[in-house]
């Protein structure tokens, strides 16, 4: 209906289109009812002005006081009937406006609620995907934070594993050389003696 940018989600677009169509039809119904009410008011005012002009003409042309009273009385009855007819027209217009608004609402409510459900499902799906992505990123960040310590050889107790292993290896090598050295020393001293 309206041009949207490509970044707008299709579910949002269809829901906005449905809402816009609903609001347009509701506005048309309201304005038609308002226009009919205005036309009725204009018609009433025109009729009342014509009646007033006729009554004043009869009152101005009356020669006797009895003609004056009879002219005024003869116009009072039709004026009250016209006001009653006006009230009936207003009641009919109000009823017609309610029927029209109910028809428009019924026509659009299914489509609007369907698109609203689709939009809610889309939002929920996107939210769960974003939550999963966020959790994965947090897990990766924690893993990257822990990995440098594991790779560099730091254990859980804070000692360097590689240094400890290297130290144990150095102690073992020293012990072996001392044993060899003692043997060599004993061999050398036996040779010198």
Task: Tell me what you see in this structure.
This protein is mostly helical. It is built from 3 helices and no strands. Helix 1 (about 10-60) runs antiparallel to helix 2 (about 65-150). The N and C termini lie far apart (about 115 Å). About 0% of the residues are buried.
Strands, helices and their partners?
Blueprint: H1 10-61, H2 65-151, H3 161-192
Protein name: Phasin family protein
Domain Phasin: 18-109
Biased composition (Low complexity): 163-176
Span between N and C termini?
Answer: 113 Å
Secondary-structure element order, N to C: HHH
Fraction of helical residues: over 70%
- Rounded radius of gyration (Å): 49 Å
Number of strands: 0
Question: Would you tell me the overall average pLDDT?
Answer: 76
Strand fraction: under 5%
Structural shape = rod-shaped
Major β-sheet profile: none
Global structural class:
mainly alpha
**Unreliable stretches, pLDDT < 50, 5 or more residues?**
158-173, 181-193
Number of helical elements:
3
Biased composition (Low complexity): 163-176
Region (Disordered): 149-193
InterPro entries: Phasin (IPR018968), Phasin_subfam-1 (IPR010127)
Domain Phasin: 18-109
């Amino acid at each position: 209906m309206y041009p949207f940018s490509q970044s707008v989600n299709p579910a949002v677009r269809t829901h906005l289109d449905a809402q816009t169509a609903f609001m347009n039809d509701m506005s048309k119904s309201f304005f038609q009812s308002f226009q009919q009410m205005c036309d009725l008011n204009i018609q009433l005012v025109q009729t009342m002005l014509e009646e007033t002009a006729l009554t004043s003409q009869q009152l101005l042309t009356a020669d006797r006081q009895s003609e004056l009273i009879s002219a005024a009385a003869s116009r009072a009855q039709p004026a009250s009937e016209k006001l009653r007819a006006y009230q009936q027209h207003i009641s009919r217009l109000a009823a017609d406006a309610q029927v029209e608004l109910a028809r428009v609402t019924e026509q659009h409510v299914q489509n609007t609620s369907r698109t609203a459900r689709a939009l809610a499902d889309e939002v929920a799906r996107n939210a769960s995907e974003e939550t999963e992505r966020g959790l994965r990123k947090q897990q990766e960040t924690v893993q990257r934070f822990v990995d440098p310590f594991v790779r560099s050889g730091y254990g859980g107790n804070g000692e360097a594993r590689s240094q400890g292993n290297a130290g144990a290896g150095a102690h073992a090598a020293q012990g072996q050389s001392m044993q060899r050295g003692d043997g060599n020393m004993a061999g050398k001293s036996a040779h010198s003696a």
